[in-house]
Amino acid sequence: MRQFDYGTLQEKTWDVEIVNYLSLIHEEKGKQELFAKQKPAVLEKLVEIAKVQSTENSNAIEGIRTTDTRLRMLMGEKTTPRTRDEKEIAGYRDALRTIHENFEYIPLTPSYILQLHKILFAHTDSAFGGKFKSVQNYISATDEKGKSFLLFTPLAPYETPTAMEEICNAFNYAVGVGKVDPLLIIPMFIHDFLCIHPFIDGNGRMSRLLTTLLLYRCGYHIGKYISLEAKIAKTKEEYYDALERAQAGWHEGTDDATPFIKYLLGTIIAAYRDFSDRMDILEGDPLETVRKAVRTQIGKFTKTQIAELCTSMSRPSVERHLRTLCDHGEIELRGGGRSSFYIRVI
Asked: Which residues have CB under 8 Å from 152's CB, separation 6+?
C-alpha cells in the first residue's frame, strides 16, 4: 500500500496559477472576516441560504433530488422524509449542520469520519452507514454510446481502515507542523480520500462535507456563507475530469494531484468572489440594492433569486422594489403564478 506524507508538499515547486490562487484566497479571507464583524446579522441570512443550496446540490450531483417545496420543508424540519432520496437529503442536512455548529470539536480521525457517515445515512434503512466498505468498489463512467467502462479501482476493503488512519495522521501532522499551506494539504487529503473510496456509498458527499469541515478547522469559513457544493455542481464535468487526471498512477505513488488542487482552489476563490459580490450588492439604499442584484442576472430570473442576494431586506420589501423597477421599465414580469419570472430590459 502506498505511503502518505503531506509534508513533502513543501518541496514541490508550484506554478503561477496555484500561487495566485493562494494569494487571492488569503486576501479574500481577510475581507470576509472584516465584514463578518461589521454586519453579522446580514451574514446569518446567508448561512441559511448556503445550507439549503449545499444540501440540494451535493445530493443532486449524485442524482438525489426532490421538489423545491419539499426540499425547503425538509431543511426547516417541517416534514419527515417520504422517499429514499428525501431520507438521504435529510441525512446530509443533519451532517452539514453538525459540521457548521461543532467544527471546532470535530477532529480529523477515522472515528469522526465514520460518525459523520452514520449521520448521512441515519434516516435510511441502510446497514452500511458508519462502516467502512466490506466489498470492493469501482469508479466507472459511461461513454457517449451508453456503455459503462472502468475509470479507477479504489483501495481494497482490507486496506481501507489502515489507509484512512494514515491519511488522517498525515493531514494532522502536516497542518500541525505548519510548513505547508493548509490550502494545499486539504485538496491532497480529499484526493486521497476519493482514491481510497472508503464507503460502499456516499463517498462523493462525504468528500464535500469533509472539504467544508477542513476549511473550517483551518480558519476558512467561506462554506458557511456560500455553498461550495453549488459551485461544484455547476462545474461537475471539470470536477470529474480533474479527479480522473489526478488519479492516474495513484496506486504506484506516481500520481500528480495538481489538476484537482487547481480545481478545488478555483472553487474556493469563486466562492469568496461570490461572497464579495453579494456584499457589494448590499451597499446603498434598498431600491439600489435590488437594482444591483438584478444587474447580476443574465436571462430569466425569479424574485427568490433576487431575495437570496438581498439578505439585508425582507422578501415583501424585495417584491415591492421589483415592482418599482417594473414601473420604471428596467425589468419585465413574464408568466404568472409559480411559473412567473423577470427579464432585464435595460
From this structure: 138, 139, 195, 244, 247, 250
pLDDT tens, residue order, the chain (346 aa)? 789 999 999 999 999 999 999 999 999 999 999 888 888 877 888 898 899 999 999 999 999 999 989 999 999 999 999 999 999 999 999 999 999 999 999 999 999 999 999 999 999 999 999 999 999 999 988 877 788 889 999 999 999 999 999 999 999 999 999 999 999 999 999 999 999 999 999 999 999 999 999 999 999 999 999 999 999 999 999 999 999 999 999 999 999 999 999 999 999 999 999 999 888 887 778 999 999 999 999 999 999 999 988 887 888 999 999 999 999 999 999 998 889 999 999 7
CA distance 88 to 93: 9
Q: Is CATH 1.10.3290.10 the right assignment for the domain spanning 6-280?
A: yes
Of 264, 246, 266, give the one whose Cα is nearest residue 255: 246
Burial-class residue 165 by CB neighbours within 10 Å (0-12, 13-18, 19+): middle
Residue 293 burial (CB count, 10 A): 24
Q: Grid coordinates 452507514 are at which residue?
A: 129
- 284-344 placed in CATH 1.10.150.20: no
What is the helix (H) or strand (E) element at residue 150, kind and residue range?
A: strand 148-152
Question: Three-state SS for 152?
Answer: strand
Cα 272 to Cα 56: distance, rounded to the nearest angstrom? 20
List the chain domain ranges: 6-280, 284-344
Nearest C-alpha neighbor of 77 from the set 106, 51, 45: 51
Residue type, 202: G
Q: Decide: helix, strand or coil at residue 115.
A: helix
Report CA Rg, the chain.
Answer: 21
CB 239 within 8 A of CB 232: yes
pTM score, two decimals? 0.89
